[in-house]
Amino acid sequence: MSLPSVKLNETHDPELRSWVASANAEGCPFPVQNLPYGIFRRAGSDEAWRAGVAIGDRILDLQAAQAAGAFSGFDETARQAVHAAAQGATLNALMALDAPAWSALRLALSRVLRTGSAHQAELAACLVPQAGVEHALPAAIGDYTDFYTSIHHATAVGKLFRPDNPLLPNYKWVPIGYHGRASSIAVSGQQFRRPLGQTRAPDAQAPSLGPCRRLDYELEVGIFIGGGNALGESVAMAQAEDKVFGLCLLNDWSARDVQSWEYQPLGPFLSKSFASTISPWIVTLEALAPYRCAWTRAGGDPQPLPYLDSATLRETGAFDLQLEVLIQTSAMREAGQAPQRLSMSNFRDSYWSVSQLVAHHTVNGCNLRPGDFLGSGTQSGPRPDEAGSLLELSGGGKQAVVLPNGEKRLFIEDGDTIVMRAAARRDGLPLIGFGEAAGTVLPARSLPL
Questions:
Q1: Of 119, 152, 153, 360, which is the active-site residue?
Q2: Domains of the chain, with CATH numbers?
């Protein structure tokens, strides 16, 4: 808790406990200090999708909690925020509010869910077991921009194609991004067919259409935009994080062979647009405040241009967030074996920060809107075993990754499930979890006639 420049309040008190007993268990990803948002309904039902907050192994149904009058004693800002959250099948209305409103709602939720709350009796009936629900996307995503913020990933991939000059000249000066496809983003549990695409073999005169052979995952952090900005207006670094509603996990599935053929000169297209998987819970920046750390730039590297720099960025602009990738093959699933770890990295190693992405995205006057989504790009660490993709772990498909059961992988095979997890940890503080982003690859469809 020794971060004097980070604004903390009573919701961050590590001694807080919840009357929801499971939230107090050691290592629980959803203690009362977390309170992430998602959209859910009871599994297999035709109930309307609605907003909820994860607490322990339960979900607080916000619509039911509002109807029970649990928030009637709070100030107008908090009541307006819970009203926005409880309306409709997405969180867009809540995202459209501002940071003070999000903070007021978080405080209200903390107070009604902590031990000693006068609202325990009425709210107990508003809890739903997480094990019995299904999730939908937490927001209607209008636009999706994917960035390329890990210098370790960029360098490792660049070496595969340009051994003597892996990084292009602009990388250390500007956050690189491209406009992705929002329609194929789905929540954890997504299943999708191996994509078809056009590729050209090294010894072929012409390309051909067929199933992707080099299917890969990309471990990323997803960033949901909140308040947004008007067209023509930019967002300064000092206000950039006020436009961020929260973070989630993102698996930006990639067809590497399709990508290598199509990406010149305009970048990824069909190699990225077939599927992206996110975790169901959005963890707010306020929940992550105690887990911030200094953002640094190596002394020999160019320092950011002034519009991408600030004292606050230098002091607390990064997040100490562990990121993990696991795989469960069909054989593992049939044998009852749990997913096995492929790699672990940390978001603090990102070359560009969340605030820098927002500031750069809007510097030309581009208007971000509530529910817009940014991807951080593959998050790889400085060590080879911290790679955020199989492309890196297998050295470009040249050296197989050997799994604990003896199976080998160069790239993802049909039936494989990739699971991503994230957690903020710090001595003396509760664990802040994100849930899982899990997706499974099915066999490709038949070729079109």
A1: 153
A2: 10-136 (2.30.30.230), 144-442 (3.90.850.10)
